[in-house]
Amino acid sequence: MNIIIVDNYEEMSKKAASIIMSCVVLKPNSVLGLATGSTPLGMYKELVKAYKRGDVDFSNVLSFNLDEYYGINKDNSQSYNYYMNENFFKHINIKKENTFIPSSKIEDLDQACKYYDQIINKHGGIDIQVLGIGQNGHIGFNEPDSKFVGETHLVNLKEDTINANARFFSSVDEVPKKAISMGIKSIMKAKKIVLLASGESKAHAIYSAVKGDITPEVPASILQLHPDVTVILDREAAMMLSK
Ligand code: PGA
After folding, report:
1. Is 75 assigned a catalytic role?
2. How far apart are the first and last CA of the chain?
3. pLDDT of amino acid 106
4. 145 is catalytic
5. Where are the domains of the chain?
6. In the CATH scheme, what is the code of domain 2-198?
7. Quick one: which H or E segment has residue 131?
8. Are 14 and 40 in contact (CB under 8 A)?
9. Prediction pTM value
10. Strand 128-131 relative to strand 192-197: parallel, antiparallel, unpaired?
11. Which residues pair with 2 in a beta bridge?
12. How many percent of the chain have pLDDT more than 90?
């Protein structure tokens, strides 16, 4: 793992954006694996700025998001479809038909999960996967478990994840209890992975992911087995690594 420690959130965001940009400049039809949550917001802002400066062209890029709440309407302002449009897609020249997010529909769940993995494979796999990390060590919505789940699947969200995400909803009761997530195999098949974390609340998860045992109880720990992972941390998120 290549671990980069920067001073603050802004530096983390700029560094992550520059890695994504170099991937797209070198391969204009890059397949990006994208994440939601607070952590990558600054990275998306930097990428939008770079696009507006004319430094990067997304017209041939494809994107696959890690996850989506189950049963949520795409137009709901809490859906990850909405998040991606508002924070990234509508500001750049990516083609809407080239952006993929796991289906939030309740019907045909198994089919939709299989289709998601098939379509990633059909496009040659993910070139670069962006990840945040949950305080419980989750990546995507792969929650701590007794086993790693490989493929795209339905997840029962853990209570700590529901509580952490309640900040985006008017009450904790409104947070969906289930989500569709790309599985660990789908993530590990990405050619390159960039894991971002900012703030003290992520320090323990980062320590366990980077220095702890490889265990499904800390899903991010599997990344120790990937040949090309860059971890970009601000000082707070990295604070336990020197101990
Ligand atoms: P956050 O979420 O970026 O909102 O902290 C990360 C995650 O839960 O994976």
Report:
1. no
2. 18
3. 75
4. no
5. 2-198
6. 3.40.50.1360
7. strand 128-131
8. no
9. 0.95
10. parallel
11. 230
12. 88
Tell me whether residue 59 is exposed, middle or buried, using C-beta atoms within 10 angstroms of its C-beta: 0 to 12, 13 to 18, 19 or more: exposed
**Ligand 1 centre and the CA of 83: distance in Å?**
13
Overall average pLDDT of the 44-66 stretch: 98
pLDDT tens per residue across span 176-218: 999 999 999 999 999 999 999 999 999 999 999 999 999 999 9
Instruction: Say how many Å lie between the CA of residue 132 and the centre of ligand 1.
Output: 5
Q: Is the pLDDT of residue 120 over 70?
A: yes
CA 174 to CA 176: how far, in whole Å?
A: 6
DSSP three-state, residue 25? helix
Task: Dump pLDDT digits (tens) for 229-241.
Answer: 999 999 999 999 9
The β-bridge partners of 229 are: 193
Are 172 and 166 spatial neighbours (Cβ–Cβ below 8 Å)?
yes
Mutate to test the pocket of ligand 1, among 9, 13, 38 (most ligand atoms within 8 A of CB): 38
Q: Which of 44, 60, 48 is nearest to 12 (CA)?
A: 44
**For the CA of 201, the nearest atom of ligand 1:** 5
> Catalytic one among 117, 138, 165, 234?
138
